[in-house]
Amino acid sequence: MSRADADLLIAGAGLAGSLVALACAAARPGLQITLIDAAEGPSDAHTWSFHDPDLTPVWHQRLDPALRARWKGQEVRFPDHARRLRAGYASLGGTGLARLVTDAGARVIWEHQVSQVDAGGIALAGGRRLTAPCVVDARGARTTPHLVTGFQKFVGLEIETDRPHGIQRPLIMDATVAQLDGYRFVYLLPFTPTRLLIEDTRYSDGAAMDDDALATAIGVYAAAHGWHGTEIRRERGVLPIALAHDAPAFWAEAAGGAVPVGLGAGLFHPVTGYSLPVAARVADTIAACDPLDSATAFAAVRDLALAKARADSFLRLLNRMLFRGCPPAQRHHVLSRFYRLPEALIERFYAGRLTPLDRLRIVTGKPPIPVRDALPCLREAPLLKETA
Ligand SMILES: Cc1cc2nc3c(=O)[nH]c(=O)nc-3n(C[C@H](O)[C@H](O)[C@H](O)COP(=O)(O)OP(=O)(O)OC[C@H]3O[C@@H](n4cnc5c(N)ncnc54)[C@H](O)[C@@H]3O)c2cc1C
User: Fold this and answer.
1) pLDDT band (50, 70, 90) for residue 33
2) Is 116 inside a domain boundary?
3) What ligand 1 atom has the least distance to the C-alpha of 39?
4) How far is ligand 1, taken at its centre, from the CA of residue 14, in Å?
5) CATH code for position 35
6) Mind listing the pLDDT tens digit for each residue in 74-110?
7) Of 2, 102, 214, 221, which is most buried, counting CB atoms within 10 Å of its CB?
8) Does 196 share its domain with 56?
């Protein structure tokens, strides 16, 4: 019998693949882990941010050396109110994360396109095949008929300002800006007193994005705040916002194959498109598998994903209310109202841990949109049928 090339093979060394590698390396010292990625190598073109309550203490400790910045609080601003929130915020850098993975003993093969992934191995574009008892597919976002989405689109410019910009903590939503192409807000991360990420974000019905127009809008916003400087880095994203999800159909279709993780497996926060907190939970789930093989890990991740999809049905309803029950120019009122709710509820919302009482609180009192407009949003099956 031929020996496997590794104990664990991971297609994709992005966020989800890296976290699986870190959790498995920590749980099983000496495990032979290989990640394969088409990218040229690690890059700081990407930062992944999270709220402190999103992660367990073990993950905080594990990711700490790769953080580009950590802040003690955060703010939001709307036309009718502003609020400072106590939850800390942090940003992880791409090169730092890649260093953690190799420091943990995993091997990363860059610049190799994966052409096919199955439960027993990975085929590379050149025809070579690598095998392992456990194979994880972490190749990132892809479209599937089982997930209907709206879009969170953004362009971010990191600038070095010619004098201190004066922003003390992340401003995760400045919705005092003109409302364009759906719900629009600006997001600010002050990495240093003279280094600022300015991101123009829109919650829109369509995926098309005019990057230049958003970059120009950022320039206008910066100039209005008196910030001038040099562009250091630019990022862009079109993230899925889940409106309807048939997770059982997705997992039935994937059965017998490699273990899907990350955005490609629908494992993200339905309202924000962010995936770091759930990627950490998925990584822990795989690391706890005994034996560590594709069938066992697939079953464990599928169970987690199905439970999450059920729990997220309320968040998808909120999204349908926002995208289908609310005219684009009015969407900011929904978010403004949400940010008046108790702080602990807001923290549980981002961490994906809303309680039944939290859900009731979000939709009662003054509902996010009039009941008349909410009624057609209640069922998600019709949306899935539209795309089938
Ligand atoms: C600009 C941007 C900023 C974001 N910021 C945040 C944030 O702050 N916080 C947060 O939680 N989420 C954030 N997200 C959302 C989401 O968490 C990220 O997209 C996250 O990287 C998704 O993780 P993933 O592992 O599924 O995919 P990725 O991290 O995209 O990893 C997929 C990897 O697979 C590789 N790959 C793809 N196809 C192949 C192939 N055929 N062969 C070999 N390799 C392949 C890619 O090169 C890539 O490295 C952001 C997204 C974007 C685009």
Assistant:
1) very high
2) yes
3) 47
4) 5
5) 3.50.50.60
6) 999 999 999 999 999 999 999 999 999 999 999 999 9
7) 214
8) no
Contacts of 379 (CB under 8 A, 6+ apart): none
Which residues have CB under 8 Å from 239's CB, separation 6+?
Answer: 141, 151, 152, 153, 154, 268, 272, 273, 274
**Cβ 236 vs Cβ 211: under 8 Å:** yes
Query: To test ligand 1's pocket by mutation, which of 54, 91, 275 has the most ligand atoms within 8 angstroms of CB?
Result: 275
What does the pLDDT look like over 198-247, one tens digit per residue?
Answer: 999 998 888 899 999 999 999 999 999 999 999 999 999 999 899 999 99
Tell me, using a 6 A CB cutoff, whether residue 114 lines ligand 1. Answer: yes
Q: Which atom of ligand 1 is nearest to the CA of 237?
A: 53
Pocket test for ligand 1, best of 35, 37, 261 (most atoms within 8 A of CB): 37
Nearest CA to ligand 1 atom 35: 12
Which domain covers residue 210, as residue numbers? 147-240
Ligand 1 atom 14 nearest Cα: 274
Q: Give every CB contact of residue 108 below 8 A, 6+ residues apart in sequence.
A: 13, 34, 35, 36, 37, 98, 101, 102
Instruction: Determine the Cα–Cα distance for residues 190 and 193; give it in Å rounded to an integer.
Output: 7
Average pLDDT value over all residues in the chain:
93
Does residue 56 register a pLDDT over 80?
yes
**pLDDT over 70 for what percent of the chain?**
96
When pLDDT is cut at 50, 70 and 90, the band that residue 328 belongs to is: confident
Residue 75 within any structural domain of the chain? no
